[in-house]
Amino acid sequence: MRVDLLAGTLYQAGTVPPMKQHPIVLVFDSGLGGLTVFREAVKARPDAQFIYAADDAAFPYGRFDEASLVIRILSVMERLITRFAPDLVVVACNTASTIALPALRARFSVPFVGTVPAVKPAAEHSQSRLISVLGTPGTVKREYTAALIREFAADCEVTLVGAPHLAALAEAALRGDDVADAAFAAEIAPCFVETDGRRTDVVTLSCTHYPLVRDRLERLAPWPVTWIDPAPAIARRMASLIAAPVTDRAGPAGLAVFTGGQMAESGLGPVMTDFGLAQIEIDPLPLH
Ligand code: DGL
Predict the structure, then answer these.
(1) Ligand 1 atom closest to the CA of 30, numbered from 1
(2) Residue 5 predicted with pLDDT over 50
(3) Most buried residue among 59, 172, 185, 196 by CB atoms closer than 10 A?
(4) What is the arithmetic mean of pLDDT over 168-180?
(5) What does the pLDDT look like over 202-245, one tens digit per residue?
(6) Residue with the nearest Cα to atom 2 of ligand 1?
(7) Preceding peptide of 23 cis, ω within 30°
(8) Are 165 and 183 spatial neighbours (Cβ–Cβ below 8 Å)?
(9) Span 32-47, mean pLDDT?
(10) E strands within 193-246?
(11) Residue 29: CB within 6 Å of ligand 1?
(12) Of 91, 93, 187, which is best to mutate to test ligand 1, by the most ligand atoms within 8 angstroms of its C-beta?
């Protein structure tokens, strides 16, 4: 017997469930950054039923060693997949995708769409051949990121910037805290390189939190650059991997699930509602 938890429907073993009106898409991040992917995903497939899951009990992921992070992500995903039976999972987190995608694909049969540094579009766009990858300390250390650079940006000088506090600052700003410009400026400063009369002209936003404060980063940049946010491309990929829409009707209102609760309890209600997530739930999964 298969239980469709969201639709509250039971199917007998061996019977084929009816074509889903609203495919279930799970969007996953360590915190609120995945909302920048979530909003594009909703635009791309308004017919889908979205669950937004934030592993805030373990935020920020950027500080974890690789082995512990993979174990953590597998255990959170086990819980979410068992509970929601999604048709597709978007890992809206570079720090998670660059290390855990192979393990996730090996463990679960549901398709995963990952979020990884947009090195290829950055190299395609750069005139000066000086590009910067702005991510968490975890993402910029990964072999996955190094391989992308070898494959797609071999003729560029790539500066890897692991910003220690930028994801947390972006969350604070989203909550409405008064975060000083100087704090943001210090995090992005190493992205801006000048050498031999050339300047960095492209910066990849390789943490899904950063587009939350993109206007501010643009304002504080020492000179104008192109900022690359991969969210629209991820949303297109997601949309292409689930069955074509069978209805014009929008999917049911989205649900946000937090593993910790601190974020959900810190006055985020109106922010989540703005993103179309009126329902917030805490499903505790403490970090041991
Ligand atoms: N949003 C996550 C990413 O894209 C990272 C934030 C964290 O350190 O948890 O990498």
Answers:
(1) 9
(2) no
(3) 59
(4) 95
(5) 999 999 999 999 999 999 999 999 999 999 999 999 999 999 89
(6) 93
(7) no
(8) yes
(9) 97
(10) 194-195, 198-199, 202-206, 226-228
(11) yes
(12) 93
Given the structure tokens 């910067």, which residue do they identify? 132
Structure tokens at 195: 């050498």
**pLDDT (mean) for 44-60:** 96
Instruction: Check which CATH number belongs to the domain holding 64 and give it.
Output: 3.40.50.1860
With a CB cutoff of 8 Å and minimum separation 6, the contacts of 129 are: 155, 156, 157, 198
Q: To test ligand 1's pocket by mutation, which of 29, 32, 213 has the most ligand atoms within 8 angstroms of CB?
A: 29
8-state DSSP, 250: P
The DSSP bridge partners found for residue 50 are 25
pLDDT tens string 159-172: 999 999 999 999 99
How many domains does the chain fold into?
A: 2
Alpha carbons within 13 A on the beta-carbon side of 189 = 9
| Amino acid (1-letter code) at residue 240 | S
Contact call for residues 167 and 209 (beta carbons, < 8 A): yes
Distance from C-alpha of 231 to C-alpha of 192, rounded to nearest angstrom: 23
The residue segments making up the domain with residue 173 are 119-229
Q: Look at residue 141 in the predicted model and tell me its pLDDT.
A: 96
What is d(CA 3, CA 142) in angstroms, rounded to the nearest whole number? 39
Is position 288 within any domain?
A: no
| Residue pair 211/275 in contact by the 8 Å Cβ criterion | no
Distance of CA 64 to the CA centre of its chain: 17
Residue type, 269: G
Written as one letter, the residue type at 229 is D
**Residue among 211, 199, 114, 112 nearest 171 (CA):** 211
